[in-house]
Amino acid sequence: MKPFRNVIFCPTGFNDEEISKSISRKILKLGGCYSKDLTRQVNVLVIGKSKETNKYRFAVRHRHDIVFIDLGAIDVLYERWLAGDDIIGEQSGVVDPVTCALNTLRARYSAGPLDNFYIFIGRVDSFSKDRLEEICHTLKCYKCNSSHFVKDCKSRNDHKTVVFVTDSLQGARVEAAIEQQIPIVHYKWILDCQRRNAALEFDPYYLLPKIPENLTFDEIGLESCNCWENLSKPTLEIGHTTTGAATSSNLFQKFKVEGDRIWEKAMSKSDSNRVLNQGAAKLSPPPEVQGNDPNGDVSIFQGVTFNISHRFSQQQADILKRVIEQNEGVLQAESEYLVIPSDCPLDLLENDEISNRTLVTEFFIERCLNYKFLIKPPDSWSKPFLRNRNVTLIPSRTLLHDNDQPLQVAITGFHGVELLHLTKILKIIEPMGIKFVEYLNKKTDLLLINLPALPSIPRDHPLWNNQYRDLFTAQLEHGNNSSNQILRNSLKRKIQFVKQEHSIPVVTPAFLIDLLSRTSNSNSTRQTVCLNNISWCIICPRGSKESFGIELVLGKDSKDESRSTKASRKRTNSSSIGPTGRRTRTADKGNGDTIDLPAQHALLPT
């Protein structure tokens, strides 16, 4: 079910018709209803550039049940929904989905009540000025100054509402504020804005030369709102901003706790439950179904010999040793497997380190523990993927949708150990010129997709039959390929987004592994890998082979090339973007031969 089904949103303060249409489309896709009129049925008021509207004033005064959010929150919610996040979550004791949705919006996405206010705090005798300043910042004020009054602050901040807060009309700062025609209000205005979780009008809080003697503190500003009785308890303080960077959970950390469990389970016989945390990857969550090893009682590494590289920290090496030995593996100098850190470049290894042994990273140990059997021979996830750090990746200009950014890559269809390993790889190679982004949007340049999540692609297709097919073997034979409904919905929405709104290449992680295999110093200093290769390409916009190339620059040339590329991007006209036609191009067949197909005949169903 869509997260905001039966939730009614109403706009206010929008002065751009295109933005209004964009927001309404996203609300409808999220399952909500969009009403331009503020009716009794409206649940959420979406604030545009200004709160100085009749709708906002009326809702603040009369509608305690309405949630106030800004338009940035809609963008964040939509991107999180596209990414497959459960943006509502379960709430104890709450059954009604509309109530759950409103609780989430109120607690996490409320618009900052004072986000457009520049607040000066003057003399306050009966309340802590530090506490008032803290509340102002909690309510997301633009600025708050309690130490001095800034001359000409109003003219310098003509797009902000400047207000002076005090409980006395005495003093030079008050006189200066009056001279600049800045409102002087009682500090209770701040407290009531916090309680109402909205910006209240100044009028009931203006300080007057003569205040009636019988006016109590509670009566100050009482008429600013007609629904105080419904707000007897203060609303939740806003602890979340609606910018994408703050609300979106970092995918590199999203599964940290669950990923640690597999190490802890493997080390349950030990006194220490620490995990590899310096250079080595975190472990993945256990698979959703048990492995199908018929000899489940047999230890995974029984009789297998390992040597742990000295390039691990002592703590990491100790943990690996305990895990291997507890699964009846044998540690010895002359061994079948040498385990090296996943972020250690192969070009740094000495010849005597790698002779006559199978090289694996800690990913191999993790994958064997996850799938509960020895993966032999090691798959492409388990083998060292990093050859050389001194590499710069230079995408074709037509690939980039933001010339100020490196190649921006999103992912879909991954879960469990593959998700953690892929994000680890992307993080390690980020300095080369690939930026992992959690959300798929119109600035994304490339989408990585998990092949087993696409049952529509036949098994005799070249995507399943190439040197990187072992990336998917363990998932097919020993894992749970169906994933869960949220991930399936996310994958479907992302594919629709690429096909209908943002035409970019969609490839499997085989592309990354092949790209990294070419980064050894023994190779040519310049190579090009094309995205539209049939071994990994699922969808590709129409265009020449060169339009989807990524050049690898190795060695001493890479830094100079990186600087010149950045300078060139700045000179490039912003209109130089990738092809966005609705026709879809199948993958490059070996030597650059291509076949153009209509979008509906692409590999993935529309």
UniProtKB/TrEMBL annotation:
<dbReference type="GO" id="GO:0006270">
    <property type="term" value="P:DNA replication initiation"/>
</dbReference>
<dbReference type="GO" id="GO:0033314">
    <property type="term" value="P:mitotic DNA replication checkpoint signaling"/>
</dbReference>
<dbReference type="InterPro" id="IPR001357">
    <property type="entry name" value="BRCT_dom"/>
</dbReference>
<dbReference type="InterPro" id="IPR036420">
    <property type="entry name" value="BRCT_dom_sf"/>
</dbReference>
<protein>
    <recommendedName>
        <fullName>BRCT domain-containing protein</fullName>
    </recommendedName>
</protein>
<dbReference type="Pfam" id="PF00533">
    <property type="entry name" value="BRCT"/>
</dbReference>
<keyword id="KW-0677">Repeat</keyword>
<dbReference type="Pfam" id="PF12738">
    <property type="entry name" value="PTCB-BRCT"/>
</dbReference>
<feature type="domain" description="BRCT">
    <location>
        <begin position="1"/>
        <end position="82"/>
    </location>
</feature>
<feature type="region of interest" description="Disordered">
    <location>
        <begin position="559"/>
        <end position="606"/>
    </location>
</feature>
<feature type="domain" description="BRCT">
    <location>
        <begin position="177"/>
        <end position="207"/>
    </location>
</feature>
<dbReference type="GO" id="GO:0007095">
    <property type="term" value="P:mitotic G2 DNA damage checkpoint signaling"/>
</dbReference>
